[in-house]
Amino acid sequence: MTVTLADVAARARVSPATVSRVLNGNYPVAASTRERVLRAVDELDYVLNGPASALAAATSDLVGILVNDIADPFFGIMAGAAQHAIGEGAAGRAGGEKLAVVCNTGGSPERELTYLTLLQRQRAAAVVLTGGAVEDPGHTAAMAAKLAKLANAGTRIVLCGRPPVPGDAITAALTFDNRGGGRRLTEHLLTLGHRRIGYVAGPAERTTTRHRLEGHRAAMTAAGLGGDVERLTAHGTYDRRSGYDATLELLRREPDLTAIVAANDTVALGACAALRERGLRIPQDISVAGFDDLPFSVDVVPALTTVRLPLYEAGARAGRLAMGTEVPPPRGIATIGGELMVRSSTGRPRQR
Amino acid sequence: MTVTLADVAARARVSPATVSRVLNGNYPVAASTRERVLRAVDELDYVLNGPASALAAATSDLVGILVNDIADPFFGIMAGAAQHAIGEGAAGRAGGEKLAVVCNTGGSPERELTYLTLLQRQRAAAVVLTGGAVEDPGHTAAMAAKLAKLANAGTRIVLCGRPPVPGDAITAALTFDNRGGGRRLTEHLLTLGHRRIGYVAGPAERTTTRHRLEGHRAAMTAAGLGGDVERLTAHGTYDRRSGYDATLELLRREPDLTAIVAANDTVALGACAALRERGLRIPQDISVAGFDDLPFSVDVVPALTTVRLPLYEAGARAGRLAMGTEVPPPRGIATIGGELMVRSSTGRPRQR
DNA sequence: TCAGCGATAGAAAGCGCTTGCTACGGCGAT
DNA sequence: ATCGCCGTAGCAAGCGCTTTCTATCGCTGA
């Protein structure tokens, strides 16, 4: 029925061991023999049995990339870059073909753990965790335990856009400077003269949310506006709908808002929609800023002021780290800064 | 080192066979025994060895979802929905836990084939192919051969948003009515009074591109405008940059364009940017339409007229089909229609 | 009372591959 | 000319799990 190594060996008139070695290319095989084997493989249209080889070799060529929301370009871009880097890296060395797959957790801690277990089952070669983590003590502990087990089994673990938990068995971590970016963004607004700034945050329990918010708060506090931050912050999810709803809520709490900072660009888009529906012009009546600088942000009207994160580069680097193609940064951790992109969605507040 | 089935068996004082049966739940095991085994599994923190079990059982729990561009929400939404459906479906029956993974081909035929081989290696339970296919005779033949082999090995094959090639060994196919959608969109423009309509198409060799364009052409031809279509069509990729460039090119060819139809919403966004840079107002000076109705399309200004495709529903259905949870449509093929969403980016052409 | 059956549990034979170790020529060195 | 080594190839022992076939035991029905 299915062609096996033995069939190829028989056809090439060599032992199965030799065929295996030709295929893996990690043992000297005479050129003539190799050629004969390769021809047999071709003629028989042989396809290696992954599970069998993974079982015997106690390793597999699977690399898992975990994302919170695959429909969100923020993750799509990083995952695509990582997958690309992993695919390319393989081209370099013989037999190093890796199957990079992305797993969508939907932001659920349970699913995250489930996928990790599934990858552990498959004896994955590496795992890349992208995006913010959920800050629940129970989950953090469970994750630490799981990661330790994976690392212990030889799986490389790379974080991308996710802060490392001290003690985590991590190969490398690439984290975004969400705090710094958030601070600079709000400082920009403050410099323009804004004082009543609303903040549409993401889910309260995520690290990304917290860090961006902390940056905002730091800037506000430094400007002597710390007292109002709490009241002018509304939490939601990282999607447009949430931005829309939260903006309306913020406007209810404080009708005189002159600016709104959103957790990310998608949320900012929802915020803009709500504002416009209220008859407010951007940026004449109210300024809006986002975060991430997703591809569409430069094209919307008015173009969004935001913090650009080098998502593609970070993803690609994470991919290489997962492949072991790139040396990890000192102490395994690298922080990637964001760049403030001032565009037309922010301006001076209206005099009143 | 690693805990194996035998360890669990020893601890539970039963045979490995029994442990296996408890874990797979497809053989009667006395409640007391089962409990003892489960306890041992828990105490030992045992994790099944995927490759070993796949080898022995000759099947695996991997399901591959192939997408052209993971950074594009069009694919992200479908893939997310499919992955969700597959994950949920598993919850239903015991032991049915599937690992749905998405593979990013980047639109490259070779990568598509490579991933299929890798999935074949892993003895994947099912494969979902999303998005348009490349129409190259050689590639089509190679794909057909590969799919036949996969199907032959028991892998379920589902197409989502991809037209089936007659003779393909497909389990089921969900295709979008790109032709009909394209036609209705252009008809809408025609009804508004437009006559000089530019078309920014996707890559020429993709089925999706061809079908949408055919719909456009059919509408134009029916209106007696078929002669100009060729000249007023510019091909590019499915991204914003392409929409931007192609729009400029179209304007060069025909400065008096009153409307532009884009291959999809992302491209339309790029087109809008180019138009605005040229000082043209939308829709007063020129109308713009997209396709897909991605989440951001309703939020941009002006809101985009487009054709809504039920991406989430289609992806979810594809996922269920891949799981074998849903019965395939008659003859395996179902066509999913698009809904014309008329919004503010299209209007009557200016009188001149 | 005893054959016979249903419900469970175990023994053991692989699944297809990798790899440590052994075997075997031919060659340069002594 | 002899020894030993290098370059190759084969042998065979698993890797950890599933599953068929067999064994056992407590009952039930005649």
TrEMBL record, chains A, B:
Residue span(s) of domain HTH lacI-type: 3-57
InterPro entries from the UniProt entry: HTH_LacI, LacI/GalR-like_sensor, Lambda_DNA-bd_dom_sf, Peripla_BP_I
Stored SUPFAM superfamilies: lambda repressor-like DNA-binding domains (SSF47413), Periplasmic binding protein-like I (SSF53822)
UniProt keyword annotations, A-Z: DNA-binding, Transcription, Transcription regulation
Pfam family, one: LacI
Top-level taxonomic group: Bacteria
Any GO MF annotation of the entry: DNA binding
PROSITE patterns registered for this protein in UniProt: HTH_LACI_1 (PS00356), HTH_LACI_2 (PS50932)
PANTHER family (alphabetical): LACI-RELATED TRANSCRIPTIONAL REPRESSOR, LACTOSE OPERON REPRESSOR
Protein name in the entry: LacI family DNA-binding transcriptional regulator
Protein's organism: Streptomyces ficellus
